[in-house]
Amino acid sequence: MTDSAVSDLECSNVCKNFGSVQAVKDVSFEIPSGSFFSILGPSGCGKTTLMRMIAGFEEPDSGDISIKGRSVLNVPPNRRNVKMVFQHLALFPMMNVFENIAYGLRCIGADRDEIKRKVQDVLNRVALPDVGGREIHQLSGGQKQRIAIARCMVLDPDVLLLDEPLGALDLKLREAMKIELKLLQHQFDTTFVYITHDQSEALVMSDRVAVMNNGRFEQIGSPQDLYHHPKTAFVAGFVGDSNRWTGRVSAVQGEEVMVETDGGMNARCRPGEGASVAAGDTVTLFVRPEFVHLTQGREALGENSLQGRVDNLLFNGANSRALVRMGSGELVEVDVTLTGGADDVKPTDDVALSWSAENAICFPSGEGR
Ligand code: ATP
């Protein structure tokens, strides 16, 4: 039974340097019991270092890490009730599935009957009840993933760490495994901490996501929060797709600001949450492709509008994307609905683009980078 009053994992002001490299800078977060938490960030931002400190393979230079309310500083990895699934899964190729899963139970001295019962139980829970006798090479990629998770979960960890476990899979299997991992987490009701540089994985699977950049957590929130209410320019640019322009604030009008972009567009937008901007500031403007409205032909240009020509269509069924080339040469991405009819937008069409001020946000340039 999980104790909902105690968080499964808490990091307080954790820092780690390697010589002059500050790999993790003052990271604090708390994960409630039984949730799916992802740490999302670009290569080199410090994700693996943070994960290795949670697992006990590295010690922080300062700060504290607690599991189930108890500090685990200086507790060796095998004495922390944390298990880890690696990208290459690390299944033992010379052992069959049953023996792979049983291995950890044997190490802690479980008896034969208990091992048999627990291995079969976990195989049932990962929906592979009949594969115990198979060799590892006889499993599909997705089955190997589930066995790697079963091998950890049979030991009933407080927290399961997953270090980019889908990285080695082909695209189709990755898509299927995203859903499967989320269902497995729900089924085991154990906290999963998942690290990835792939925002679509983090958004689909997680209850909450921490966006990490340059050793720091920029923002922690639900996928919806991060997507709709980014608090820094980095989060706005890293989570989901956005068109961006740089420009200068020409006026502040209540909740909105006017920006004159470097390409000469007048854009009305709102400052990102928590961002303060003043007239004269240099800002980056973000507009998501799904908020850009496309009309065929040319229309008079007002605020938040542009004219261009369709350069390319990235076909993806009904929800496709048009790449529209402006006179200045820049490309603007626009989500378009294609019905297969004669009215569908096509390459070389002249189009007008527009969006509403509430769907355009700006942050001071350089913030969060
Ligand atoms: P990736 O997604 O590419 O694995 P990451 O976000 O996991 O990257 P880390 O591997 O944690 O990033 O690395 C963070 C920074 O710390 C990088 O600059 C890296 O070069 C540095 N670093 C990590 N481990 C060591 C080490 N043992 N010695 C020196 N520098 C290290």
Concise structural overview:
Helices cover 23% and strands 35% of the residues. The chain has helices at 47-55, 97-107, 112-125, 141-153, 171-188, 199-205, 223-228, 233-238, and strands spanning 9-18, 21-31, 36-40, 62-67, 70-71, 82-85, 159-163, 191-196, 208-213, 216-221, 243-253, 256-261, 266-271, 282-287, 293-296, 305-314, 319-326, 331-337, 350-354, 360-364.
CATH superfamily grouping of the largest domain: P-loop containing nucleotide triphosphate hydrolases
Count all strands and give the number. 20
Major beta sheet summary: 6 strands, mixed
Q: Which CATH class of the largest domain is shown?
A: Alpha Beta
Radius of gyration: 25 Å
Total domains, how many?
2
The averaged pLDDT comes out at 91
Number of helices: 8
Low-confidence spans: none
Widest sheet: strand ordering? 6-7-8-3-9-10
Work out the strand percent. 25-35%
Bound ligands, named by name, code or SMILES: adenosine-5'-triphosphate
| N-C termini distance | 42 Å
What is the element string, with H for helices and E for strands? EEEHEEEHHHEHEHEEHHEEEEEEEEEE
What is the 3D form?
A: globular
Query: What is the CATH topology classification name of the largest domain?
Result: Rossmann fold
Structural class call reads: alpha+beta
CATH architecture of the largest domain: 3-Layer(aba) Sandwich
Helix content: 10-25%
Family: Belongs to the ABC transporter superfamily.
Protein name: ABC transporter ATP-binding protein
Domain ABC transporter: 9-239
GO molecular function: ATP binding; ATP hydrolysis activity; transmembrane transporter activity
